[in-house]
Design brief:
heterodimer; A: about 220 residues; mainly alpha; 8 helices; about 70% helix; elongated; B: about 240 residues; alpha/beta; Rossmann fold; 7 helices; 10 strands; globular; binds adenosine-5'-diphosphate; binds magnesium ion
Chain lengths: ~220, ~240
């Protein structure tokens, strides 16, 4: 233990170690992970249900059906109305803000953990990768559940408005351009919802994690939540 | 010539709070020899933790230099600093700073994971260390399931994981009762004697006095005086008698 050689560079950890550590962390913090994930689920469920409700409306409109209770709006023209666009944008904003907030809180309460890991020799990149993996997994699973719940909601609403006709004209796949305005279809919306949820979760968590990882450990460990 | 393991040169640390600048360290010069047990003493707010952070590369000084093993710490790359924290220093904190998502065993293995040690080796080492600190039967408990003294023992085992040459302890007994605190001090002292690790401990716990080789009194970010062991022994009597 006498006079040692000059200080070497810290090694990069193999990916599998990061994966193990992040899953272990998700497992032990299960309760807290569920709450964070629920934030993502809610945001995506809201967005997908509004969006899909609109999609279903369009599909049935094209088929010549009218909603039985669509009273305050006579949609003479085909396509998405301004009101619907507004609704979709609003739900998108709610979704973005909700997910970003829930990830930000989840990271902030772990600043101390980040500082501690750096004391033990973690590289900044490792810390960020850990949060990337955790949030990617949370984002995808939360968003998938959310998209399914949103779809269910839209289908129930559709049943109420159009009855069983819904299933004859159900817009499962994207429409082809010659059948009027382009529609994405249910499957694509679910996929987009999952991707969006995952991207938002990953950005919402790795950005604050990156900022915390850049801090000197003394600063990160001082943070009280 | 003595084997100097830590040397600080005119270390200044300022904290900026709005338009105020607080000078937490005001030019600290100390030299610490390999194998020493040094206590940084001083009232709360005197700058002990700040100095601890500078020596442990947990923060950067505003001015001045810190040398460890003759190496100027401000010249190290990010990756070298991470390796330094991983291999050369073991940190012990007042509030333990265990990762609450990992068991005692998982906390002790983490620095070894960062060091790239094989799973088999790190499990063996973690078991050995936890045995040594008296937690052989509590290895797979989460920190939340352990008492304060037990948590601090896990922290000590974790600090030793990569055979550091320096143990930095920031008020390791401040959250513990007298008896538990005494046990923790004895444990750290034992490592100092048996394994030759240099111990640098911030404290205002008088129990730390009689195990220290030297005591550095810090006041308002300055070294007020440095006392040797022989001077200390006289004063322990005084403390028992009259206080300050
Ligand atoms: N990150 C910080 N930001 C602002 N002020 C700080 C910070 N850390 C410490 N201080 C101030 O620096 C002084 C020294 O603090 P510290 O080193 O923690 O003292 P000690 O450990 O001896 O109690 C105190 O006045 C404290 O409030
Ligand atoms: Mg302190």
């Amino acid at each position: 233990m006498q006079q040692r050689t000059p200080i070497e560079e810290q090694i990069d950890l193999p990916f599998i170690e990061s994966l193990r550590i992040s899953f272990q962390s998700l497992k032990i913090r299960f309760g807290r992970s569920i709450i964070t994930t629920a934030g993502i689920t809610l945001g995506i469920a809201f967005l997908v249900s509004v969006w899909m409700n609109n999609e279903i409306g369009l599909a049935l409109q094209e088929s010549g059906r009218q909603s039985t209770i669509n009273t305050f709006e006579e949609t003479a023209e085909q396509g998405i109305s301004t009101k619907d666009i507004w609704l979709i944008i609003m739900s998108l904003i709610v979704c973005v803000v909700g997910i970003a907030n829930s990830m930000l809180m989840a990271v902030t309460e772990r600043f101390r953990e980040i500082g501690t890991m750096k004391c033990l020799g973690a590289l900044d990149g490792f810390v960020v990768r850990l949060f990337l993996l955790e949030s990617g997994f949370q984002g995808f699973s939360g968003a998938l559940i959310g998209a399914l719940i949103g779809t269910l909601g839209a289908v129930l609403l559709g049943l109420k408005d159009y009855g069983l006709d819904l299933f004859f004209y159900f817009p499962l796949l994207p429409s082809s351009p010659e059948d009027g305005p382009m529609q994405l279809g249910v499957i694509v919306i679910i996929l987009l919802g999952c991707i969006l949820g995952m991207i938002l979760a990953v950005i919402g968590s790795s950005f604050p994690a990156w900022r915390a990882a850049k801090l000197p450990p003394a600063e990160a460990m001082r943070t009280e939540v | 010539m003595a084997d100097i393991v830590v040397k600080t040169e005119d270390v200044v640390k300022e904290y900026r709070m709005g338009s105020n600048i607080l000078r937490a360290l005001d030019g600290i010069n100390i030299e610490i020899e390999r194998g020493e047990y040094i206590s940084l003493m001083g009232p709360s707010g005197s700058g002990k933790s700040t100095l601890f952070n500078m020596i442990g590369a947990l923060d950067r000084p505003t001015e001045g230099r810190v040398y460890i093993d003759g190496q100027n710490m401000s010249q190290l790359s990010q990756k070298q600093i991470a390796a330094f924290r991983c291999h050369r220093v073991g940190y012990i904190f007042q509030s333990y700073n265990l990762l609450h998502v990992r068991s005692a065993h998982g906390n002790v293995t983490l620095p070894m994971i960062f060091a790239g040690i094989s799973e088999k080796q790190r499990n063996e080492k973690a078991e050995k260390l936890l045995d040594m600190v008296g937690l052989g039967d509590r290895m797979y408990h989460l920190p939340d399931e352990l008492s304060g003294g037990q948590r601090q023992r896990v922290a000590i085992a974790r600090a030793l994981a990569n055979d550091p040459s320096i143990i930095l302890a920031d008020e390791p007994t401040a959250n513990l009762d007298t008896i538990t605190g005494r046990e923790i001090i004895d444990l750290i002292k034992r490592l100092n004697i048996e394994q030759g690790v240099t111990v640098i401990s911030a404290t205002h716990d008088l129990k730390m006095l009689d195990v220290s080789d030297r005591i550095v009194d810090i006041r308002d970010g300055l070294v007020e005086r440095i006392r040797n062991r022989d001077e200390i022994e006289i004063e322990v009597g005084e403390v028992g008698g009259e206080g300050e």
